[in-house]
Amino acid sequence: MLNTLRRAFSSNPSSKLEQEVARKISKTLLNSGAESLQTMPSLLSSLNSHTVQLVLSNHTLTAETCLDFFYFIKKNYQKPDLRAYITMISKLYRSRKPDKLQKSQKFDEMRNLVNCVAVDGDLSVPVTVIASLVEGACNESKCNRDKFMEKFFDILFRVYADNKMFGEALEVFEHMAKKGLHLDERSCLIYLLALRRGGQVDSCLRFFRRMVDLNVEVTVYSLTILLDGLCKRGEVEVGRKLMEEAAAKGVKANVVTYNAFIEGYFKRLDLGGVKEILKLMEKEGVASNVVTYTLLIHGFSNVGKVEEAQRVFDEMREKIIEADVYVYTSIISCNCRSGKVKRALALFDEMIDKGLIPNAHTYGALIHGVCKAGQMEAAQMLVNEMQSKGIDLNPVIFNTLIDGYCESGMVDEALRLQFVMEKKGLESDVFAYNSIASGLCKLNRKDEAKGLLFAMVERGVSPNTMSFTTLIDIYCKEGSFVEAKRVFREMEEKGNVPNIITYNALIDGYSKRGNMKEAHKLKNELENRGLIPDVYTYTSLIHGECIDGKVDRALKLFNEMPHRGLVPNVVTYTALISGLSKVGKSLEAFKLYDEMKEEGITPDDTVYSLLVGSLHSANV
């Protein structure tokens, strides 16, 4: 096949007719341009691939003229073959003045033609075949063979990378290496970046090592692309080793490289690793930039290190590094999540004073903070403000508001907001439905909650663990344990794993109905699944044992709690005091009352009534 192609590019004799047609077309192109050929249908009817080749190879025609002819026949008559493409690319490469095409235009045109070769399935051939055709084009045009081949294959390598044709790109790279053609580091960078964006980190690593083996120049930019991919995948140790190897060869990490490690360590919740990188940066004299501070503030915030996030923010200001909207959004979000809404609002005002424009994420963080604090009027004011600035509510902010209204007992307002959301063309997701259903349950509107969850499924929204748990809790409170167990089974069948809240709903339901055997069976089951009973689990069981008159069992459960790191709450104490009072154990009840106060838990009126009742029972 290769020999056939070589012959096609060398001594293929033209018929007199083909030569005459090519001569007439060339003359027309010189005098009138490509569009005038439309008035010569009889001439173009004789057009074939060899005639096209003769025209494109005509040295009297400029690259611009040939390009016009190339696109003319491509649009109106026939699809040029691979040979025509390569000849046209060669013509553009060799073009000099007086062509009107500027250097940048020539490169763009060459790249466009190479891209057509790469993505057109009809032109797809092995790299060795393309190489043979390119070599033939060089021989015919007498251009600098090596320089043209380097340019052509470099463009082809980049084009394959841009089109995510990674196998073909690697084939080109290896061909260039085999032929001793110059391998451009910038092109390798493009390939690495394409692999990284395509999630092919392993291929990225193999290619990087191949670059090193072939002595291709490696810069901190190509190194950082690879390290960023490894860090995002959690392979920071592999990344650290590579960074050390690169440093030994004179390639020093920059702030972007270190930022990748900071992000990677935070992703693994490895604060020690973050500290190591910061020390390394200081040792190497690499200064933190605004991205570094953003990562640190965001990372410390996510792991609940609010004071550390604030310290980093203050340090940033001390070093006179201007915080951008992303930094402010991170620190505002951090303060909101820790309940420091006043501080968050002050930072928001400071940001505005500095001329920074808050975005939807900034408003979303602040709205989340005020909703969490139950300040729904403040939330509405922020919504009005952001809308007045042309920032519309997104699904996340709608969900935040819906959840805020439900937590504040304003479920009807949440339902109104859901209607507004859907009117805007935004579909309610499972989070919105769960929030409203939970809010309805708190107001004892259980039938409405069930109806909402059933409607959710009918609308094609898949229920999650919380949806099933809410439904199970409703059935348990209604005493419909057959239905509760049915939903529990359905939940598991659909791949939703029950959590401690699911089990607590069932345990609480059975305990209140006096079925302690089933309640304890569920406790054992959740422990076998690797779940850990919490204070609500024990409180339900204690309450159930007290209802059943088994106060000794309740006390045993109560005494077991500290050994499991659990602190009884006001409900736990009240349930046990109630049980002791009902069986006339006033002394134990008062002792528990004193213990409750010592723990800093304030008894409510119910406890006082129970204690008075216990005295009456004891006297009787």
Question: Would you write up a description of this structure?
Answer:
- 73% of the residues lie in helices and 0% in strands.
- It is an all-alpha fold.
- It is elongated and about 120 Å long.
- The N and C termini lie far apart (111 Å).
Which secondary structure elements does this structure contain, and how are they paired or packed?
Layout (H helix, E strand, L loop, with lengths): L1 H8 L6 H17 L8 H4 L4 H8 L6 H14 L5 H13 L8 H17 L7 H15 L3 H18 L3 H13 L6 H13 L3 H13 L6 H13 L3 H13 L6 H13 L3 H14 L5 H13 L3 H13 L6 H13 L3 H13 L6 H13 L3 H13 L6 H13 L3 H13 L6 H13 L3 H13 L6 H14 L2 H13 L6 H13 L3 H13 L6 H13 L3 H10 L9 H13 L3 H13 L6 H15 L1
Helix pairs in contact: 1-8, 2-4, 4-6, 5-6, 6-7, 6-8, 7-9, 8-9, 9-10, 9-11, 11-12, 11-13, 12-13, 13-14, 13-15, 15-16, 15-17, 17-18, 17-19, 18-19, 19-20, 19-21, 20-21, 21-22, 21-23, 23-24, 23-25, 24-25, 25-26, 25-27, 27-28, 27-29, 29-30, 29-31, 30-31, 31-32, 31-33, 32-33, 33-34, 33-35, ...
